[in-house]
């Protein structure tokens, strides 16, 4: 690698160093903005006992759902996992563990992890099963629970455009968890639709600065739609 | 007659005010968007990172990168903004959203809400619901007043695991509009043709009934 150039030439290079038992933070919401080829590479590598931190777990046969097929996932940290039959089977069979985490808390855990903040107080989940066993502290007459930050051995991210330094721009609501995931990996791997010339991105319009990005790869994407909803023209 | 889903949405829509930023949950709350009163502007927030949600796209406009929190394809309205999940929940948790409308299994007189988990059944997750109820000051719960078996969903104490504690002040059911204060339900309006006695019978928690209970009109 030369200087700040983060581009790698293959998916196997992009995910080099991933081992059994590691924690991976993944961007995406539903099937929108998911690093679909990096997920396929994890399946190809066959690493097991993975902890995956992602808002959802894909669907049967696509996205993170494909990592369930060979039982590569030990634990999911997610806010909603309702779209997936295989997930349900493995959960009921005790082959898979799930840590349900409120969506905003999950986003903040990633953000805090990437920002060097080990924990934070939030009112979300106080008085519910999510708050059980967690430290409670009162601020200005209201109760908050202490939630710990998350970091990953790897973060896998999908962006729209990048320059070779790894400066990233996301497209529409495919942004979602990706910017936080990008900050929270020891090794952050990003796949993009387009790599543009250095200087082509307006510095003020970059969503994720390249300092967070370790490896960058150009991909092509299926972008499957989960709920195709239209109005008549 | 109990309210239809559409009428329930219409009744909730009357709580909208000009300039409100609003988060609508999945199901009946989503229908509220169809009944925004004429002459006012509201902006819909979708917690996956969109403020200013527009209508569903036409076939030509469909874009896999443009979805709402229900994972449906949507469009962005003029003046919309798009941002990360952390930014989205900063808005929600920080109390910047003026009104949140969501469904529930149960609410109780203490303003507790249970909406995400039925023990013994498969648990899919809370999504953003816990953040939404913790962050909003102004929340409207929409649900049927009682289960199909006639069991009240307005209780002295929620029986299911909570989504949030002490956060609900307004409930619109298919039978009534009810407010919650001082550990009591306060009956404010009834659905057209629904008797106060029916509402009392189907409300397990303590219900304060005024002398006159206005009937909703549509």
Automatic annotation (TrEMBL), chain A:
PROSITE patterns: COA_TRANSF_1. It is an enzyme of class 2 (transferase). The keyword Ion transport does not apply. The keyword Isomerase does not apply. GO terms for molecular function: succinyl-CoA:3-oxo-acid CoA-transferase activity. It comes from the Bacteria. Keywords: Transferase. InterPro entries: 3-oxoacid_CoA-transf_A, CoA_trans_fam_I, CoA_transf_BS, NagB/RpiA_transferase-like. Its EC number is 2.8.3.5. Belongs to the 3-oxoacid CoA-transferase subunit A family. This is 3-oxoacid CoA-transferase subunit A. It comes from Zhongshania antarctica.
UniProtKB/TrEMBL annotation, chain B:
PANTHER family: KETOACID-COENZYME A TRANSFERASE, SUCCINYL-COA:3-KETOACID COENZYME A TRANSFERASE SUBUNIT B-RELATED. Gene3D superfamilies: Glutaconate Coenzyme A-transferase. InterPro entries: 3-oxoacid_CoA-transf_B (IPR012791), CoA_trans_fam_I (IPR004165), CoA_transf_AS (IPR004164), NagB/RpiA_transferase-like (IPR037171). Keywords: Transferase. Its EC number is 2.8.3.5. This is 3-oxoacid CoA-transferase subunit B. One of its GO terms (molecular function) is succinyl-CoA:3-oxo-acid CoA-transferase activity. Belongs to the 3-oxoacid CoA-transferase subunit B family.
């Amino acid at each position: 690698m030369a200087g700040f150039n983060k581009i790698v030439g293959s998916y196997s290079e992009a995910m080099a160093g991933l081992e059994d038992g590691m924690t991976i933070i993944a961007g995406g919401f539903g099937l929108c903005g998911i690093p679909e080829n990096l997920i396929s590479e994890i399946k190809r590598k066959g690493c097991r006992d993975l902890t995956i931190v992602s808002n959802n777990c894909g669907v049967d046969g696509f996205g993170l759902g494909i990592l369930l097929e060979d039982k590569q996932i030990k634990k999911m940290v997610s806010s909603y996992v309702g779209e997936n039959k295989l997930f349900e089977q493995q959960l009921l069979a005790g082959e898979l563990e799930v840590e349900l985490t409120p969506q905003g808390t999950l986003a903040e855990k990633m953000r805090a992890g990437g920002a060097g903040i080990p924990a934070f107080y939030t009112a979300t989940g106080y008085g519910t099963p999510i708050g059980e066993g967690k430290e409670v502290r009162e601020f200005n007459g209201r109760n908050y629970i202490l939630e710990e930050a998350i970091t990953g051995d790897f973060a896998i991210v999908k962006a729209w455009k990048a320059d070779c330094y790894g400066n990233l721009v996301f497209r529409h609501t495919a942004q979602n968890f990706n910017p936080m995931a990008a900050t929270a990996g020891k090794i952050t791997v990003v796949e993009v639709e387009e790599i543009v010339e250095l200087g082509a991105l307006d510095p003020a319009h970059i969503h994720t600065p390249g300092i967070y990005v370790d490896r960058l790869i150009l991909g092509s994407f299926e972008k499957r739609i989960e709920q195709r909803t239209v109005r008549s023209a | 007659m109990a309210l239809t889903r559409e009428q329930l949405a219409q009744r909730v829509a009357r709580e909208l005010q000009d300039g409100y930023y609003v988060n609508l949950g999945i199901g009946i709350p989503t229908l509220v968007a169809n009944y925004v009163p004429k002459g006012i502007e509201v902006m819909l927030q979708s917690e996956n990172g969109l403020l200013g949600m527009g209508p569903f796209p036409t076939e030509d406009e469909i874009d896999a990168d443009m979805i709402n929190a229900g994972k449906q394809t949507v469009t962005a309205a003029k003046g919309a903004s798009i941002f990360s999940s952390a930014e989205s929940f900063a808005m929600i948790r920080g109390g910047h959203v003026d009104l949140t409308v969501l469904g529930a299994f149960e609410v109780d007189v203490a303003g507790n809400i249970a909406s995400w988990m039925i023990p013994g059944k498969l648990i899919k997750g809370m999504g953003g619901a816990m953040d939404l109820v913790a962050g909003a000051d102004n929340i409207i719960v929409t649900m049927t007043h009682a289960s199909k078996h006639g069991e009240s969903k307005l209780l002295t104490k929620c029986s299911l695991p909570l989504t949030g504690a002490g956060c609900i002040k307004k409930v619109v059911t298919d039978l009534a509009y009810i407010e919650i204060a001082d550990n009591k339900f306060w009956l404010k309006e009834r659905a057209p043709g629904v008797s106060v006695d029916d509402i009392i019978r189907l409300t397990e928690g303590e219900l304060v009934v005024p002398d006159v209970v206005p009937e909703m009109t549509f």
